[in-house]
Queue: 2 jobs
Job 1
Amino acid sequence: MHVLGMLSGLLVLLAACSGPAHSAIITENNLPILWAEASSQLSDLPQQDNIVTINPWNYQQRMTLYRLQLAASDQYMGSMGPNTTEGNPLWSLPLQLGWKLRSGRLLDPTSATTCGQESDSMCISGQSWWACVNYYLSVIPFLAAVQKGVIGDGQLQVQIQTPSDAVQDYCTSYTDCSTKFPDLMAKWEAFYQGMKDLSVAAITDVEKKDQILGLMWAAQQFSLQTASSTCQEKLEHYSYPEKAFAESWLSSADFVAATHFQSTVERSVVFMTPLPSRVLREGDQAPNIQDLSPEENHTLSIFNWMRNMNSVLGGTLVRMWRHAMCSQKAREQGQTLLQDLTLNPKFALTTVFSILSEMSTNC
Ligand SMILES: *[C@@H]1O[C@H](CO)[C@@H](O)[C@H](O)[C@H]1NC(C)=O
Ligand SMILES: *[C@@H]1O[C@H](CO)[C@@H](O)[C@H](O)[C@H]1NC(C)=O
């Protein structure tokens, strides 16, 4: 315990010395990209006979799905800190969407259409792997929030438009989506229901927070798991380095989720800023990609390391990590460790194993 305490103190110090990482711009006025352009009221959306229609293949409308979820969930996030708007852990989702837009990951990777290019910059392509994965992190949670009456009055129906440039393999309503992905929908409904129930439960704020975050990360992980098989074909449109990055990006969520990370704007930006600011091309090899910043180069190398290490060890790293994150206190230490691992170039990767086993013995 003492060793770990000293070690993490030292690491925090080192991380502070290496200065904040900055490369990609993923916020505007400390909010996700084009947040102000997204609607903040359900009534702003086209509506007829109590059916709201949404086009998630337009960036602002997809962002609206997030803006409505954030606004509607604030009142249940009292355990997240004195300011529930700032403490809301759903912020990482719209921030990620902004990074995907700015890094060119939402455009049509087949180049068959101009969707997402300068002339049609708000278009989200149905062929983009990143947009496909995000579908399960935006549309599905939104439908669950509507179903649970967190958004709307519980009577509202939502119709989701299909993309114009892709085979129509996306689900389009609560009924359709929950038929195709029953377990996934159940996870997001459990998050929204749990958030409501826990907000008034007779437990401490620290426990509420940890449990709400646990439900949110369980749902997010299920989304990624669903997306990794459902969106698989779309990965073929990308270079080998981009595919490898995409896969390690998916598995990085395992590490973040296990710590029950409170993904506010401030805390998420730290992890997202060093993500690659453009789609990777054939021949890109971290940490030697000339037009990326040292921080982006570093993050990519760590992603590759985590992925390789985990596959060499047959999933042992993830298992060790999950096992070590056995208590609320351990999960807090895990968040620090994650920060050191991804942001501190001086951090010796091999020490991860000794730290994890040390943590595990305290479970
Ligand atoms: C909470 O934070 C937001 C964003 O920083 C700010 O606009 C708002 O005024 C704050 N609310 C309160 C009650 O302090
Ligand atoms: C990315 O890393 C490589 C090697 O470390 C370096 O040559 C390249 O200049 C880096 N990018 C920047 C902007 O530092």
Job 2
Amino acid sequence: MNEKQLPFTHEFLEQLTQTYSTPFHIYDEAAIRENARALNGAFDWVEGGFKNYYAVKALPNPHVMKILHEEDMGFDCSSYIELVLSERVGVTGEEIMFTSNATPLHYYKKALDLGAIINLDDISHIPYLAGNLEMPELICMRYNPGSLKEGNVIIGKPQEAKFGFTEDQILSGFKQARDLGAKRFGLHAMVASNELDSAYFVETAELLFDLAKKLWKRHHIKLEFINLGGGMGIPYRPEQSPLNYQEISDGIRAAYNSTIRDTEFGPIRIVTENGRIITGPYGYLVSRVTHLKDTYKQFVGLDANMANLMRPGMYGAYHHISVLGKDDSTPRRLYDVTGSLCENNDKFAIDRELPEIEVGDLVVIHDTGAHGHSMGFNYNGKLRSAELLYQSDGTVRLIRRAETTEDHLSTLDFSEFD
Ligand SMILES: *Cc1c(COP(=O)(O)O)cnc(C)c1O
């Protein structure tokens, strides 16, 4: 097995824990930038210009958002707060894709106020939006291909997923929107999550290109862009291989050339809204071993818990763990690596073979740069950790402080007890 690499030395992290107490997430700016450039470079053939709208929910931190915006990304928002975050970092208008579902009206109001591209999740949202607010000039709709496409564990089967319009609804939805005043149109689908097979993205593009053609034939509606969604996966396990952007891009380009290019309904811009692959591999949760427990199994207790990283407890997801300062001569043992939450699924790893661990060891949990800190919750009075940025110049900056007891209690009314 190839061990996953860390951009930091053991010494560097030990030193850092003298300034910032564990646990914390730390993000690698240089690697995030390099990766963003690789993605954009692979799609440089796109007519009208490729753009990835970074899915803000993956890592909603203004400092990381600023970096991504500097690397030509827009933002995919799905809630009021994500829209506000985008506004606060100075990104508005068509650099925002607003892809939500079961959408409260005030979210749409905010999206309209910011001039964001609204991506509707359901045909009933056409009268909901137009009747209560207005039909914008530019409108996008989310397609759910149903049984045309297989799903995966995280997102489920498309026909059971709550997202998107059926094909008939898409075809009549665009016509309805046009009748209500829309003049510019985008089509979206997101049917994958954490997918590592590049063919999957090419097939999704083919489905959407075919639908663009049908829409033209049926209603003479020409799409301005096709949004292929997010869902590009990352190799959480050391034996997995990363996706190859060029391979995906080449496949999509071939499909584009055969269905869209030089037709009367082309050109159509291609955009995506990836989150995980953009920042996921470049974040690390650093935590200290506080306890060892020997009962029916060997347990390692960390100062981090599910509030810092939900994915293992929520989906049984694998996150690689490095124990710092151990080498090949350290004997290995099987451990369950746990947090202190009163839930038995508060485990970062189950039956994981790791170098023999001692109390006080520093461990790094890999691939926490997306859907890591942001998924955290406060159940059981657990506080969310700080976030640090390992900047391109080698210095470290605190980009979110850790929550405090006062933060946690601040929404309660203690007036009669004080
Ligand atoms: C979560 C989400 C994304 C990003 O998904 P990743 O797996 O992080 O790439 C993109 N679009 C929508 C609509 C989403 O809900």
